[in-house]
Amino acid sequence: MLPHFRRNFVTGLLTIVPLFITWAVFDFVLGHLARLGNPAVQWLTRYAPADARGYSLVLLEPFVQWPLAILLTIGVLYALGLMMSYVIGRRIFAAMERLLGKLPVVARVYHSIKQLVGAMQGPPVDGRQIVLVEFPPGMKVIAILTQIVTDPDTQELLAIVYIPTAPQPITGLLEIIPLNRVTPTDLTFAEAMSFVVSIGALGPDTLAFSAPPDMVPGGG
Prior knowledge:
Blueprint (H helix, E strand, L loop, with lengths): L1 H45 L6 H7 L2 H22 L3 H15 L2 H18 L8 E5 L5 E11 L6 E8 L7 E7 L4 E2 L4 H9 L23
Antiparallel strand pairs: 1-2, 1-5, 2-3, 3-4
């Protein structure tokens, strides 16, 4: 009786886990999009014309607000991207950045995040941007190699890496480690983020845990 129950329980668990992880990933992404667009939906509801009160009541329904907020957010992001493709749009955005630059604390945070995003979007360092680093000892984690610096005393090359946490890669750890302790991978940034957000469910079929010495950046 017990083996029969255990076997069916494990089978059921293994069946539901992929569905749960898929739901968690989409809930995380769509939830953030909905929260971004929700203020616009609330504004439409509050300031709807008198002859459109029926529509405003419909907008109060959660099952309408959620997808509408997502669509509004996607539309705004598309419009922003379209605007940035024109000179006037880039000039307006540059003026906003100059305004942010006059706010001491805000400017530091904004420019730090912008540099990180630029490093993620830019060409990989030594052809390899997504790496593995040992953390904790005996285990390795996915990390983003953002910069390589030199120790002025020993001339040793040091890697500055960002270790994203699962399933929310916007939080993580920033570490400085010897470059020869970095294991390069051939993962793209999109593949690495899918791996992190999906809690490993959307990982690659193969992943080198240790790299040959000639492949290690700075390893000769």
